[in-house]
Amino acid sequence: MAKQPMLKFVTVGRDMPEKRDASLRAKDYDEIYAEFAAQKAEEQASRCSQCGVPYCQSHCPLHNNIPDWLRLTATGRLEEAYAISQATNTFPEICGRICPQDRLCEGNCVIEQSGHGTVTIGAVEKYITDTAWENGWVKAQKPEVEREESIGIIGAGPGGLAAADMLRREGFQVTVYDRYDRAGGLLTYGIPGFKLEKDVVMRRCQQLEEMGVEFVLNCTVGEDLSFDAIRGKHDAVLIATGVYKTRDLTGPNATASGIVRAIDYLTVNNKVSNFGDEVAEYESGELNAKGKKVVVVGGGDTAMDCVRTAIRQGATSVKCLYRRDRANMPGSQREVKNAEEEGVEFVWLSNPVGFATTEEGAVAQAMVQKMRLGQPDASGRRAPEVIEGSDYAEDADLVIKALGFEPEDLPKLWDTDGLEVTRWGTIRAEFGSGRTSLDGVYAVGDIVRGASLVVWAIRDGRDCAAAMIADLKGQGAIAAE
User: Fold this and answer.
1) Same CATH fold, 248-404 and 150-243+407-472?
2) Residue limits of the Dihydroprymidine dehydrogenase domain (predicted)?
């Protein structure tokens, strides 16, 4: 009788790849987790219970066939594991690195509920695809038949690139327009290298070029090229711009020098630390935390990226102010722990209400109110309330706004009539297909659903691509299941 390769969670404990020491990793931008060795990956994959109703799969936005590729990994059949992994996910090695598995697949693992510790799904997913790249199993898929129809995609982030991949495989002529000088969107410039090393993103962009996708970079739609011109050039257009408008701080001196946007701060640092670019705002110290007391305002993953970047830039102190407590913050608890290990101080239940400045007009202090949690608000979360008389001053040479992102007013920016938006300013698009109010125009990702996860943008891009393929082939409204 063959030996049972799975269900080893009873005898084998959960084990993550080794994490580099905080004192060492805080000095560079390399990823903090080591790679699984083959034996360890097989061991951890073998812990899967192969349950009849795989909650890990149903709670994954892409519905990745996780139990099957875990079983294949456990039995050493890695090339087959990669084939199954990439069948539902355009960028599995990226999701393995940056998805909040604790809130998605791993957070819903059946053996976790029984007290045995979840399967390390994300680490195994990363290992499978990294191994596939090393062995040459990841190949640029050229279409069997070229088609005449042309598609323009505005935005080279995860949603746009996922759609570009599927559309190009079907033979459509695909052009991707992006405002930045490199493709990848927030994968390239919004997420620090210690979470996602940039060669991982660049090789996917290069693969798309090898497949025949054309990239038009340094192109801001509405300035360098009109939206109408793009529509006139292509048979269909996909809007995948993401959301980049920063929510602002309020109160006295909220626009003082030294108070900066998280997206600007992270973009400049990624250019310098990961690509070796020379950026004036970094050299001048405007977007450089070296030698400064840094205060980051916010509690999401962007705030975590900012505080950990400030540590690496050489800040003298880094504090994160968040108006709720640790249990109610939206960011990953894993990222909070990593940040604390690296020297970040979290000041829970605190909210800046204004700023004091130097004689030159630069920020010097954040004026902070202490908060407590009251009754739940309309969202169901306990609303923060001010504790009267609790105000105090927090010294700060650099304040980074990481309060979340809102959609830009695209109809106005692009001088476009008829592109309907919701009351939140996101583009109104049909669920599943991404069809908008304009004929032949589709939209996906954060510009439709609001600021969200990379994995949801990939899902939206794939679903929309399926609908576009069906529409352009004249097969009606068919969206991916």
Assistant:
1) yes
2) 25-136
Query: With contact defined as beta carbons under 8 Å apart, do 300 and 339 qualify?
Result: no
Backbone phi, then psi, for 437, in 5-degree steps? -75, -15
Q: How far apart are CA 36 and CA 44, in angstroms?
A: 9
Biggest CA pair distance of the chain: 81
Direct distance between the N- and C-terminal alpha carbons of the chain, in angstroms, rounded to an integer: 39
447 backbone dihedrals φ, ψ, rounded to 5°:
-70, -15
Query: Which amino acid does the sequence have at 236?
Result: A
Q: Which of 15, 14, 34, 32 shows the shortest CA–CA distance to 23? A: 32
367 strand-pairing partners:
354, 393
pLDDT digits (tens, 9 = 90+) for 367-404: 999 999 998 888 788 889 999 999 999 999 999 999 99
Superfamily (CATH) of domain 150-243+407-472? FAD/NAD(P)-binding domain (3.50.50.60)
pLDDT in tens, 71-126: 999 999 999 999 999 999 999 999 999 999 988 999 999 887 777 889 999 999 99
| Cα 85 to Cα 249: distance, rounded to the nearest angstrom | 42
Q: Where are the alpha helices (DSSP H) in 214-366?
A: 227-233, 262-275, 280-283, 301-313, 333-341
Strand partners, 225: 221
| Band of pLDDT at residue 8, cut at 50, 70 and 90 | low
Q: Which CATH architecture has domain 248-404?
A: 3-Layer(bba) Sandwich (3.50)
CA atoms within 13 Å, Cβ hemisphere of 208: 28
The answer to whether 170 touches 143, Cβ cutoff 8 Å, is yes
Q: How far from 332 is each of 98, 193, 302, 303, CA to CA, in Å?
A: 10, 17, 10, 11
Domain covering 8-134, topology: Fumarate Reductase Iron-sulfur Protein; Chain B, domain 2 (1.10.1060)
Q: Rounded to whole angstroms, how far apart are CA atoms 120 and 74?
A: 13
Q: Give me the residue spans of the domains in the chain.
A: 8-134, 150-243+407-472, 248-404
The answer to whether the pTM exceeds 0.85 is: yes
Burial of 334 (0-12, 13-18, 19+ CB in 10 A): middle
